[in-house]
Amino acid sequence: MTADSSVESHASAKLSLERLKSRADFLRAQKGRRQSMPGLTLETCPSPEHIAGRPLLRVGFTASRKVGNAVKRNRAKRRLRAAAAAILPLSGRAAHDYVLVARTATLSRPFADLSLDLRTALAAAHAALDRGVVAKHPGPKHAGPKQEGGTT
After folding, report:
1. Nearest Cα residue to 101 out of 59, 53, 147, 149
2. Which residues are 30's β-sheet partners?
3. Which is nearest to 113 in space by CA: 43, 21, 37?
4. Residue partners of 136: CB distance under 8 A and separation at least 6
5. Does 1.10.3210.10 match the CATH number of domain 15-131?
6. Residues 120-138: tens digit of each pLDDT
7. Which stretches of the chain are DSSP H helices?
8. Contact in structure between 78 and 61 (CB atoms under 8 Å)
9. In 10 A of CB 142, how many CB atoms?
10. Are 130 and 75 in contact (CB under 8 A)?
11. Burial class of residue 67 (count of CB atoms within 10 Å of its CB; 0-12, 13-18, 19+)
12. Which residues of 94-125 are buried (b: 16+ CB within 10 A; e: fewer)?
């Protein structure tokens, strides 16, 4: 088996998708690599150690109120789920978590362009993870209220 054939077999292997459901998983992905595209924002990070050995990837979907009312947010998430189901099993990486964040353009963007956005975001995020680049996005705007020195 040559290096080329192992790459081909990895690319042709379909991974199973599992849904991210807990808030902690979404927050951990948010601290990872973020890649913004016109139709979506992709957040990704390696999976926690206890599931990293399994050949699956986990994916979550979110849409803020900026996208629109509940009907529009649900439609945006359905479009993201369809794109993820078609692309992530072939282009995603095992033992990685992905969060797809809807943008206002998610609703009106042609599905082919939305799929291309996801492929491009995946390639850029994977390249950055391979280089060891940490997240480029800023942290919280403030650390919270200042604590006084004494206890009550």
Report:
1. 59
2. none
3. 37
4. 34
5. no
6. 999 999 998 888 765 555 5
7. 3-12, 23-30, 70-91, 105-108, 111-131
8. no
9. 7
10. no
11. buried
12. ebbbbbbbbbebbbebeeeebbbbbbebbeeb
